Amino acid sequence: MGTISSAFNIAKQALDADQAELNVVSNNVANASTDGYTEEKAVWQQNSTVNVHGLTQGDGASISSVESQRDLVLQQRADQQQQLEASSSARLTALDSVQALFSVTSGSSTSSGDIGTDITSFFDSFSTLESSPSSESDRESVLSSAKTLASDISSTAESLGSQQTALNQNVSSVVSQVNTLTASIAQLNTQITANNPTSDAGTLEDQRQEDISDLSKLIGISQVTTDNNGLQITTTSGHVLVDNDSSNQLATGYNGSSLDVYTSSKDSTGATVLTDITSDLSDGGGSLGGYLTARDSDIPSVLTSLDNLAYSISTNVNTLNNAGTDLSGDTVNAGNIFYDPTSSGISGSALTMSVVMTDTDKIAAASSTGGTGDNSNAVKMADLASSTIVSGQTPSDYYSSLVSTLGTTISGVETEYTAQSTSVTQLNSQISSLSSVNLNDEASSLATVERSYEAASKLFSILNTVMASALNIGEETTVS
Amino acid sequence: MCGYGVQSMHPELKEVVSEASRALALLDADRLEELALSCQALNRDLVPLSAEERREWARQSREAVLPMVTFAKVLDATGANLRVIKQLRDIRMGNLGYGDSQILGWAETGTGSVHGDH
After folding, report:
1. In chain B, which end has fewer C-beta atoms inside a 10 angstrom radius, N or C?
2. Which ipTM value was assigned to this complex?
């Protein structure tokens, strides 16, 4: 039942998000009351051949204006959904590559190995050593499994870093495309606004709309129509990209290993000031938003978990080994099995994880007082497998959570993508069908959407009842 | 069992939910109404089941949760699209003049008080 409630909560959140988007569309239409729109409104009011209620149309140009307005709003809604769809798609592509690193499919060229199995094998090797603490082959097995574990964790971290680097290239490419499009839109604005506001700049506006749609796939934008059908385009966070006849070109530059995005402006002295807007763009939509979210949020989150895992295993195993007696009877110089990450901290522990012990005799299977034949320290190290040493979880459980969380994230993004893609399809269908139809056809088209929505709402409600009942009776059966 | 268009004679519930999402994406009202009718019948038949059938239904329901979330999101996106289209029709039907008050009123309706469009 809890999961059904979760489904409803997610549905409600989606509804709220859609409502917010709808309000943005509404606000854009409300801009018609600003100075920039006054002249357009006057044209409609002065034109006596346009009848109120739209049932009799005498002047094609005025009706065309109204239809353009209608198309614009629908188009803006489609653009908004397209931005989200492109963002989800880009993020999904990046996340799929991340997930491939944790795939246990044999023969996978992208998988770094099965870290889950490595963890089990490593601690099992200590269990084996318990029964014969002096066995050379069992000691070799401990170091061998330690190397496999360290190598797989380290190479996974390295691959995640490589994916971040690859995403840097994607960011650079998208920014370049954005700059080309904004320059083109600014140029079109110049041509469009040079026309008389009442004249039809149809082809130019179509071309501009095409550029805006393309831009929407790349970056989250908001648009405001200005005087004489000019246009200002900003990022969703408000940074100006196009201001009528000028475009504000974005720049990229490395901030550490991360390629960041900058916008330029003039300060009071006229000097150019670059502002890092990367984090704003991550939330903004478009493929740029998706790439940045994957690079700056999703991958770091996985890396942090991997660092935690590597740090905890390394430090706990090292601590125990240093507390025991090695095969030569040394109670103080057994040393570390893994590279000691404590000096550099948790961050980066996965990448640097490695086995530093080369002499199998240095494995301290015995306790500090047990003598070389003792196995009690090996027992303690084997017991780490079931100890909650990584953020309150056992190493295996923690790793399973990492993989599971990644899967849940991907599943959520897939769901978003499906819904957004559907929405874009529906809107494009509406835009296409409404482009040259009369009011009756429009009413019929609306009725189809409405009927589908009502039927789907009813079906959703029934399915929810069916599922809730099925889960309830299933639970009752289980209890009895 | 409700649903059609799937290969099995007895499709899993998750397949039915996915079918509903596809139908809604295509605005296939006929199919959605058929699905609703057959699922309604299914709901009536659900109670007198054997213990084994109940466990099977519980399993299918658990597996259908994710497709159900997708369906919910597609439904909400469609609802938002519908509101935009309705509001545009309001403008077209009643407010060709685009007077100030009408424009502001439209913008302030939020979810949109629908009138005159049915």
Report:
1. C
2. 0.76
